[in-house]
């Protein structure tokens, strides 16, 4: 959630993924990040509005401070408190739900007890704080000034991506007939409920392409109808990340909406040629964001894997360092840019900006792969270092005239030292033996289809072109356009998941530029706009 276009402040963020919230806090210290479900967040916003109406004077409604820090009214006084009694000193946070998972769901405050420190704070339901009206009033007035939570009409832009697992083609148990029976699909309803409550100037919703393919596009039609029902202007576009300077095709659906008094932003046109990996649904072909066939335009050449990988240090399957030095300078325009544009994404208060101000020697973060088990590592060692190599190159595999891979019946099945087969049954049966991705080795002049949330070598082509390992967390982050300074928290699997769930950074950047131009009334009425020359790898004017 963003306010104030002059500085584009990322004021609030919410996610129920704890480690994703930790990563966001680390990279965006100016943002108040809440780790909770959007359902609870919406209920909290409603309760917060009631509290503000009760305790905040009308004259103070627009009197906001910019800092977002923990409240502090000085230290607790030194007056003695009997050890058997607890006295509320102040309230330091607020939430809706059941933070301790032991009580009923309602509004809770985090209490700082008199004579105790932050480690002893506890969540208490509002109904148990009947004698603490002054503390509640102080918290609400101070919280309103510090904008700890958004109020209706106070948010310029809301961006979100309701969970897509319920409609993703990778989910084999989808509810085709009644998609809203799936709890994961109901998050689109909650997202639109939040829009209806906050009434932002602009709305951006991202989702997988399957939202248009699944159940006659029921969920996409629902989202559009909700915006139109709120009298918002709305439109839907399909954008491919590879068209904006990435070696990842990754088609995604974007729903744009804006308040009737604002100008609906255009979709930004592609800047790069792309190596097509898949096509969108024919029924929505007109929604594909691209240049018309009749337009003569000189696009930048496609970005391929060599453009993003060639400068990174060599690491092994068991690499476990979270940071390391670069061993050589950038070799391509992409690499020069990805090492230096952190302030556009992370802001002036981030760890990257502080390191830059201290002129610290750059470090490379998260350049470590998900370690393969011993058997899979032995299998990878036998995948040739050549373009197109995959499990079909392993001993004992033959391919019939129908392009189906199978074991050679004339030869004895090859076993590993563990006694398990070299060629797994699952790769022979995946997509009826016709798939080329299992144990696939990527190549320098190629692109990937989509960076997923969980690397699975039995289903995806993930092996480095020249090294016997999976692509690292950092290499995956580069595939999504994250600057090298952007760090990820959690286990290695957690980090892959966060990267796979993200919107490709260059796509978000292009959409943001088009939004800013519309807000400044610098766009016409065309639904599409051309980005400035060399936009993909240039720094936007006015960025620190």
From TrEMBL:
Q: Which domain of life is it from?
A: Eukaryota
Q: Please classify the protein's predominant subcellular localization into one broad category.
A: nucleus
Family to which this protein belongs: Belongs to the class I-like SAM-binding methyltransferase superfamily. C5-methyltransferase family.
The protein depicted here goes by the name DNA (cytosine-5-)-methyltransferase
EC main group: transferase
Q: What lineage, starting at the top, does this entry show?
A: Eukaryota, Viridiplantae, Streptophyta, Embryophyta, Tracheophyta
Cellular localisation: Nucleus
Q: Which SUPFAM superfamilies match?
A: Chromo domain-like (SSF54160), S-adenosyl-L-methionine-dependent methyltransferases (SSF53335)
The record's keywords, sorted A to Z, are: DNA-binding, Methyltransferase, Nucleus, S-adenosyl-L-methionine, Transferase
- Please name the PANTHER family in this protein's record: CYTOSINE-SPECIFIC METHYLTRANSFERASE, DNA (CYTOSINE-5)-METHYLTRANSFERASE CMT2
Which InterPro entries does the annotation name?
C5-Methyltransferase (IPR050390), C5_DNA_meth_AS (IPR018117), C5_MeTfrase (IPR001525), C5_meth_CS (IPR031303), Chromo-like_dom_sf (IPR016197), Chromo/chromo_shadow_dom (IPR000953), Chromo_domain (IPR023780), Chromodomain_CS (IPR023779)
- GO molecular function per UniProt: DNA (cytosine-5-)-methyltransferase activity; DNA binding
- Gene Ontology cellular component annotations, sorted alphabetically: nucleus
**One GO biological process term:** methylation
User: What EC number(s) does this enzyme carry?
Assistant: 2.1.1.37
Record-annotated Chromo domain positions: 86-139
